[in-house]
Write a structure and sequence with these properties.
Structural class: alpha/beta
CATH architecture of one domain: 3-Layer(aba) Sandwich
Largest sheet: 8 strands, mixed
CATH topology of one domain: Carbamate kinase
Strand content: 15-25%
Distance between the termini: 37 Å
Strand order of the largest sheet: 3-6-2-1-9-11-12-10
Number of helices: 12
Bound molecules: aspartic acid, magnesium ion
Shape: globular
Number of strands: 20
């Protein structure tokens, strides 16, 4: 008997029909002799709709305690409906909110971190032969006594944390495509499904903007040795295994594993910075105080005649204005000339563990973009990733030509079963 944690995303439980289909699948897994814990997201685009509603009733951007109260209602609806559907099929099921399931977090509303998991009631439900259904994306802070959320896409993290705490054999993440692909199949129909990927590569893809798995869930799984199986709730096809390479284990790694794209960042350029020691430190200290997550940084060479340099960096769109304001406040102290804000950038990340031992990967990437007439504005690299910034309008084309250049195209078209991609 195996203990399986299954997580179903919003598009897998978007309506009554889908909930019934998922319920049948859960019952099938249970009747095959497994213990089953299910984590659900809110139905379809419910979370976004709740956010729109919150904005509609108030002029100030909603945050904090009340927003978390609102958003967690989405998962509460889907967990209860799923439990009702499973019971309707003659299988015992019990639904639990995040706090009932023992997801203890810190107190940060909207981006809480899990600090402890005490799944006593979930274990009890399993011992009684029931399927346990847990609302994803939410927890409880002991100090404040309040309900928290883990940040958008947080249900993946809930599932992984429960799998770790319960010692599950596998954590299955159900989505609307057959697994992890070499590129987003919505953008590249010829993208190929990956059978097996290391958590290291998956982390880089997630950091590069791949939305199929959230980075915090992959990090958590890596740290706690949880095996992830990403698969479709619409088919019975084998999905993608995200494995933690054991120490000393040699796995034959493909040179290129996949390509991710990201349209969620902006670029800020600090123009005319005096080219003397301490200026970068000053600028990024100011930006750090706004809590911005800086991604790529490029500094050009100062021209000898002026002794001034430009420093560009990228950061999440929603953090750009705060960073600009903070820099403007310190303009005289830093001594730069002006600020530029570019909200039309796209980022492409090419990932593959085999890059370490293969030359010529960057040359091939840049040549493919050049052949397509796409200008590269910034470049950054890690051991197993190369990222470039292009115009936002070019990003999909960039992904397609790079995918082709590295011969990642499959013979057959990838199937996208559902979801609005919102
Ligand atoms: N419902 C939440 C969201 O849309 C959490 C999740 O789906 O994982 O972000
Ligand atoms: Mg969702």
């Amino acid at each position: 008997m195996a203990l399986i944690v299954q997580k179903y995303g919003g598009s897998s439980v978007a309506d009554a029909e889908s909930i019934k289909r998922v319920a049948a699948r859960i019952v099938e897994t249970r009747r095959a002799g497994n213990e089953v814990v299910v984590v659900v997201s809110a139905m379809g685009d419910t979370t976004d709709e709740f956010l729109d509603l919150a904005l509609a009733v108030s002029d100030s951007a909603p945050t904090g305690r009340e927003l978390d109260m609102l958003l967690t209602a989405g998962e509460r609806i889907s967990m209860a409906l799923l439990a009702i559907a499973i019971k309707g099929l003659g299988q015992e099921a019990r639904s639990y909110t995040g706090s009932q399931a023992g997801m203890i977090t810190d107190e940060k509303h909207g981006s809480a971190r899990i600090v402890e998991v005490t799944p006593g009631r979930v274990r009890e439900a399993l011992d009684h032969g029931a399927v346990a259904i847990v609302a994803g994306f939410q927890g409880f802070n002991r100090l404040t006594g309040d309900i928290t959320t883990l940040g958008r896409g947080g249900s993946d993290t809930t599932a992984v944390a429960l799998a770790a705490a319960l010692g599950a054999d596998v954590c299955e993440i159900y989505t609307d495509v057959d697994g992890i692909f070499t590129a987003d199949p919505r953008v590249v129909p010829s993208a190929r499904k990956i059978d097996r990927i290391t958590s290291e590569e998956m982390l880089e893809l997630a950091a590069g903007g791949a939305k199929v798995l959230y980075i915090r869930a992959v990090e958590y799984a890596r740290r706690h040795g949880v095996t992830l199986h990403v698969r479709s709730s619409f088919s019975h096809n084998e999905g993608t295994l995200v494995v933690n390479a054991k120490d000393g284990e040699i796995v034959e790694e493909p040179i290129i594993t996949g390509i991710a794209a990201d349209l969620s960042e902006d670029k800020i350029t600090v123009v005319g910075v005096p080219d003397i020691p301490g200026k970068a430190a000053q600028i990024f200290t100011i930006v750090a105080r706004t809590n911005a997550n800086i991604d790529m940084i490029v500094q050009n060479i100062s021209s000898a005649s002026t002794g001034l340099a430009d420093i560009s960096f990228t950061l999440p769109k929603f953090q750009a204005q705060k960073a600009l304001d903070a820099l403007t406040d310190e303009k005289n102290a830093v001594g730069f000339e002006s600020l530029q804000h570019d909200d039309q950038i796209g980022k492409l990340a090419l990932v593959g563990a085999g890059m370490r031992t293969n030359a010529g990967v960057s040359a091939k990437l840049f040549t493919a973009l050049f052949d397509a007439g796409i200008n590269i504005e910034m470049i950054s690299t890690s051991e197993i990733r190369i990222s470039v910034v292009t115009r936002a309008e070019n990003i999909n084309e960039a992904v397609r030509v790079v995918h082709k250049a590295f011969e990642l195209d499959a013979e057959v078209e990838a199937v996208v079963y559902g979801g609005t991609g919102r």
